[in-house]
Amino acid sequence: MALINYNTKVQFDFGAIALLGAEMALANARRPLIVTDKGVAAAGLVDKVKAALPKEMQVAVFDSMPANPTEAAATTAYEAYRANGCDSIVGLGGGSAMDGAKAAAILASNEGPLERYAFYNVGMNFPPKPPAPTFVIPTTAGTGSEVARSSVLVFSSGRKSLLFVTPGTVRCAILDPEMTLGLPPSITAATGMDAIAHCLETFCSPRINPPADAIALDGLKRAASNIEIAVRDGANRDARWQMMMAAMEGALAFQKGMGAVHALSHPLGILHLHHGTLNAVLIPPVLRYNADHLKEKIVTLRSVLNLKAGQDVADWFARLNERLKLPANLQAMKVPRERFDEFAAEAMADSSHPSNPRPMTPHDYKAVLEAAF
């Protein structure tokens, strides 16, 4: 049986942002640092968070987290935390801001550099001291970082890997679908496909975890039924609610393990390409590679996706990408073909590699990359 550990407190619904101050009071947090990015700040969402907090609360802001969070940015965020005498952190944004916030919280009470806690150095070994109290508020519906037990960072060495975060670091996740209403169609599509990839790969993983499978299938059904609506009509409140729920469910479930889609998209992320878009492009060729090892699961996927008997599931995802106006292949994303051997080798060391339904070699990973090119 795979690990089952759902322990993040979540406040979920329209208007949930109003509960942030009360949740912070429970942790005796009075001087937070908001960790976010320039786009979220420009959209006025930092101001919305400040308005939800008591007027007497002293709030500092670090708004320079990059699209793929880095060890350097997380370290700079921690320096801002220390310089402003902060006692807590609020991660506001997509997965990058939330992952960076959790990483900065580790440095608030643990010795750096962060890479010493990277998955490839120590396995699932958590930092020894409890990080600073952290609260997260997603502004996209994709990564599920708000309930994930890890962060994904690009370390100063140039490697990209998981960074496991001490359980209980996130004191409360505030999931307010209203925070996603202004999200552009392209970002809605790319982040939504990230949520779909989490649900899909979790269900396809051969590890035994029936609760995770059930959650993943529910999330996949919600996302597949609503992603095109959310892209077409970003103000559709029900679609935004459903997509945020699906994103959370994907992350609740993916502790079961994922597979080759993520094993490849993680090293490809070093090219500063959007993680969800990479996942979308890689889903069809990975499904085709795994097809003979999925058997009855393919039948279940057809049912969840409302496909006809015998309909090709990989082709359905390829057509979905087209309708969402996502890139057709890795070539369109300007992925350098000459680095395929490098990416294939790194995929073998990724934490998602062991739970792919069909065993893979570097040659197999390169074949998938070629099929996606």
Q: Summarize model confidence as the mean pLDDT.
A: 93
| β-sheet strand percentage | 5-15%
Main-sheet strand order equals 1-8-5-4-2-3
* CATH architecture classification name of the largest domain: Up-down Bundle
CATH superfamily of the largest domain: Dehydroquinate synthase-like - alpha domain
Task: Report the total helices.
Answer: 15
Q: Which residues sit in consecutive blocks of at least 5 with pLDDT less than 50?
A: none
Strand-and-helix sequence, N→C?
A: EHEHHEHEHHEEEEHHHHHHHHH
Describe the structure.
This protein has 373 residues and is an alpha/beta fold. The protein folds into two domains: 10-180, Rossmann fold; 185-372, Dehydroquinate synthase-like, alpha domain (Up-down Bundle). The chain is built from 15 helices and eight strands. The protein has helices at 20-26, 38-42, 45-51, 71-83, 95-107, 119-122, 185-204, 210-232, 237-253, 260-268, 275-290, 296-304, 313-323, 340-349, 362-372, and strands at 10-12, 32-35, 60-62, 88-93, 134-138, 150-154, 160-164, 170-175. The strands form two sheets. A six-stranded parallel β-sheet has the order 1-8-5-4-2-3, with helices on both faces. It has a two-stranded antiparallel sheet with strand order 6-7. A hairpin with a 5-residue loop joins strand 6 and strand 7. Helix 8 runs antiparallel to helix 9 (237-253), helix 10 packs antiparallel against helix 11 (275-290) and helix 10 (260-268) crosses helix 14 (340-349). The longest helix is centred in the middle third of the chain and has 23 residues, at 210-232. It starts with 9 loop residues before the first strand and ends with a helix. The model has no long low-confidence stretch (mean pLDDT 93).
